[in-house]
Amino acid sequence: MVIKKHSKLTYLSMKLLNLLTFKDLPIRQKFISFSVGTAFWLVVIATIGLITMYQVNKVSKRMVEVIEPQQKVGNILIRKIRGASISAHKILLAKDTEKVNSNRMKGFSRIEDCRSYLNVLLTGGQIKDYSRGTGQFYAEFKVVAITDPAKIELVKDISSKVSELEKLLDKIAESRFRTKTGDSSSAELEEYDALTRDSVEKINEYINSLEAEWRSFQDILNSTFQFFMFLTLFVFAVSLGLSIFFGARISAALSHPISNLIHQIKSLASGELDLTRKLAVSSKDELGELSNEFNRLMDTISNVTSFKKVIEEDETMEDIYMRLGKVFVEYLKIDNFVIYEVTNSKNAMRIVYPPEAEGLELNCKRDIQLDCELCRTKRTGHIVSSLDYPQVCKYFNDNRINSHVCVPIIIGGAVGGVVQIVCDKPERCEVVDLKNKISRAEQYIREVQPVLEAKRLMRTLKDSSVKDVLTGFYNRRFLEESFENLVAGLLRRGTTLGLLMCDLDFFKQTNDVYGHDVGDMVLKETANNIRKGVRSSDIVIRFGGEEFIVLLVDIKTGDSFGVGDKIREIIQDSKIKMAGGYIQKTISIGVSEFPIDTQNFWEAIKYADVALYKAKETGRNKVVRFDMSMWTEEKY
Question: Which residue in 207, 199, 68, 208 sits closest to 127, CA to CA?
Fold first, then answer.
């Protein structure tokens, strides 16, 4: 019981550790999480700094914008009050009335300044400090109103004393005018001096309170900086420790995706790779770049496969050329290229991409379009490249400026077209990159070739009027004229041709009972159903009467039987409308494969025909694969 509990605890600990160290996450998420964590601590440190700076700024602002100006006002008040006291003493010492009045006015002015400054302290405002004696300007600054009730009362007390000083100064001046000895003025002057000392003491008390507040703010600043330094060091130490810990754990977790990458590469080398399986590594480091390149390679292979499936369903060769050009532009990022097609007369070439350039002279001289044997690629069937051999082709325009690579399109064992890729900016032409693009382009060209071959055969059929009027299928004449090109292409590619010999069951009975019009309707519907069961690249021929032969081009060995059974089921389930109701028919199919069953094409057709008769003999409405046991003749 203790062991189980310990194991469970260990399991939970490991799960928690994996969660905290992102071990179960893809590489991209690992580093995103790591970056978020790092950013979090940076934000914490930055927040601490911002809060500290805000507090320091707030305290400093009060010190500079509030306390210091208020201290200046206090010092100015002391200077003004003492100046007024000097004026009072000069009144007593004055010998004539003019000097008495002059000193009296100076004293009143200084006291008036004090009253004004005290009022600014209470209400706030602008201070302009200058000497009443010399008129010299000292300073101008803004004062924020006092908010502390104790200080307000103290300022009001000082203000009342200043008012009393003004009254005493007036009495001193009046007494000096009435008496020449100044005895009575001396007593008033002593009272004035005492009141002055009392006022200065009150102002000093006010200034001392500001200095105490100043020292308090200094203490706050010091403690704030100390706390910030301690907190910053602590957060830095924690974040550094966590970064080292998580960095080590994430590095250790990279071994698993690296192993996957090695496994995929080995699978690719052995040919056992699943194209749908992608590497989960998607970081932006070297490992992620390597993984992305590997996945891109898998995408290329997958795209080529999908591309072939799409072009097999295209209707004409022109559609295929347009699709190939679109792949070059959008997927391979090849900007300057031309696709030439060798015409049926086999002595001329025409531009098929870009379609608007047909008949124009682009990169090559017009001569090669009139005589395709002048084209080095058409004549040799090899890739021609000026990257390896400059000025290799004398019919290429601007040999000294531009580089070009011409790739042949092999159709039916001969050059049926040429793809010319041009690098028109040699100073910026990346040779390695261009060769990589050409290598990838060749993959698409190889996939295009058999499809173009089938399309060309179909176009040849159309040009020579070898179609059955009733069904729209090719007739026996087409097969007799084109089988050599078909066989040559199959043997060159090393692929298999499936042959399905199809014959409607009891068709003569349909004509006898319902008439030939219904019989023709049945043949048309049968033709449509056969077309539904095969690919667009496959060839269907009306061999004669109610007999059809289907040529399954480039099919996998052994798959022909399944296609035949699919056709049989479609026809069996089809209901053909007719006057008064509908009719259903069945079909018997014989199957053979070339060159699996025989190296002779017509013998393979005969084998399919033998298998067809075997299907008829054994009950009809079935598909029979040819077997040599069915062949009773000594030779074909």
Answer: 68
Q: Which of 114-128, 250-264, 362-376 has the lowest mean pLDDT?
A: 250-264
The mean pLDDT of 485-497, rounded to a whole number, is 89
Q: Tell me how far CA of residue 347 lies from CA of 177, 316, 367, in angstroms.
A: 138, 22, 11
Interacting residues of 504 by C-beta distance below 8 A, sequence separation 6+: 510, 522, 523, 526, 546, 585, 586, 587
Which among 526, 514, 394, 532 is positioned nearest to 471, based on CA atoms?
Answer: 526
Report d(CA 95, CA 182) in Å as an integer: 11
pLDDT tens for residues 313-327? Answer: 777 778 888 888 888
Question: DSSP secondary-structure letter at 96?
Answer: S
- Residue range 444-470: mean pLDDT, rounded: 74
Q: Are 430 and 333 contacting, i.e. CB atoms less than 8 angstroms apart?
A: no
Rounded CA separation 440/331 (Å):
10
- Catalytic-residue membership of 188: no
Q: How many CB atoms lie within 10 A of CB 500?
A: 28
Question: Distance (Å, rounded) from C-alpha 144 to C-alpha 147?
Answer: 9
Q: Are strands 496-504 and 581-583 parallel, antiparallel or unpaired?
A: unpaired
Q: What tokens appear for 502 in the block?
A: 């199809």
Q: Which residues contact 136 (CB under 8 A, 6 or more apart)?
A: 130
Half-sphere exposure of 368 (CA within 13 A, CB side): 25
Q: Tell me how far apart the alpha carbons of residues 262 and 267 are, in angstroms, rounded to a whole number.
A: 9
Q: Where are the domains of the chain?
A: 2-46+234-255, 57-227, 257-307, 319-446, 464-630
Question: Which residues lie closer than 8 Å to 63 by C-beta, 6 or more apart?
Answer: 214, 217
CATH of 464-630, picked from 3.40.50.20, 3.30.70.270, 3.40.50.12780, 3.40.190.10, is 3.30.70.270
| Pairing label, strands 403-411, 384-385 | antiparallel
For the chain, the residue count is 636
Of 546, 569, 617, 634, the catalytic one is 546
Q: Write down the pTM of the prediction.
A: 0.40
Cβ–Cβ under 8 Å, residues 435 and 521: no
Task: Give the CATH number of domain 57-227.
Answer: 1.20.120.230
Strand positions, DSSP E, 459-580:
474-475, 496-504, 539-544, 547-555, 576-578
For residue 2, what pLDDT band results from cuts at 50, 70 and 90?
very low
pLDDT digits 0-9 by tens, 325-336:
888 888 888 878
